[in-house]
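Record type: monomer structure entry
Structure origin: computed from sequence
Chain ID: A
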Amino acid sequence: MALTDAAAETTLRREGESIRLVALSTADIEAGLALSDAAGWNQTADDWAIFVGHGHAIGYRDAAGRLLATAASLPYGTRAGWISMVLVADAWQHRGLASELMTACVAHLRAANIVPVLDATPAGAAVYARIGFEAGFEIDRWQWLAATTGGATTEAFAPTEHAPHTAGITDLDALAALDRDATGLERRFLIEGFLSRSGTSAWLTSTGHGFVIARAGRRAKQIGPLVAEDADDAIALLATAFALARANADRVFLDVPRDRPELAAWLEAQDFTRQRPFVRMSLGAAHPPTLGATSFVLAGPEFG
């Protein structure tokens, strides 16, 4: 989606310098990636391509054409849309660019009667609460570093009654339907994008009622989303995905709702550690965000 004509190229003055508000295109993916790399984030060029191709990705550019700041909103059907990728180059921080881009993303979604949703850090949550976002459930990002050794083995924790089997793009319909049932969102394009990438692995439970996707990131393998009927199936799926990452000595990130204590206990037994918390927030919804009964691992704070 593009900016409206009126906002497509707004020129502002900041401390004697001209900057322009612009819609991002595929030509901006590398510049956006440089910003997320500088922030230490895990997004890839493929992730940026999703925001540009399926969302409302905007940014500020200076007179020389350099990308200074970004933000994106990503609608999932007509019910809700994610706001993320709010990034500002170091030299331009604390000048209000992030707030302006965030406001533009909120306005874009609300103009389409789509509820804005985001996963916020504690510092961000305090800011978003002041503009009306309501907090829902809490999330922890867990990490496993390839240099870590010892601890329990995945085999000791993985149930075997419903051993997962490999899935792929031919299973898109099934995975998209399971994801929709778990989240209440239409994210077929997102699941398809994940499955189509080099470096992605996916598994389905033998019953066909759960799945997990593991994809390559800039800093670590990202596990999620993971949908399952119960905690035992969720751990079986997670154990399968982690076993492959561990065999390849990959670092691993995953985002787990705090209301999943069985997964937290399993992760601790595998030497995972908590990296940082998030909280899911929404603006103008009938109620704060709630966790679906079959949602165990999220796709990441940028995707929900």
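Annotation 1: The longest strand covers residues 134-144.
Annotation 2: The two ends are 19 Å apart (CA to CA).
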